[in-house]
Amino acid sequence: MAGSKCIALIAHDQKKDAMAEFARRNQAALADWHVVATGTTGGRVLDACPDLKVTRLKSGPLGGDQQIGALIATGEIDMLIFFIDPLTPMPHDVDVKALTRLAVLYDIPMALNESTAERLIKTLNH
Asked: Which top-level group of life is the source organism from (predicted)?
């Protein structure tokens, strides 16, 4: 991943369709990034955008959130887009909190909803 911009994409189950659609709408912009995603989210993004370079990690509850957290801590992630579902209880909620804490700690741009993600993509791609 060295030398290229790297973006992490994560979406809770109820937001995976929105993430796939976000990737489809922003495919040209995302093509300039190396995309890292949790397992199922990465699969959905690849289905929507088969030409994108996407590295799929484990699914979030099986350690994918921690894998992305480790990449943030080692400086390999430049931006995090995490479509959270605030209405559905998550059994791995502590992992989600740890991941967002790392993004804040390491001062990387982070979007937790589509509106912010759209603005980040447009701003940071220039």
From this structure: Bacteria
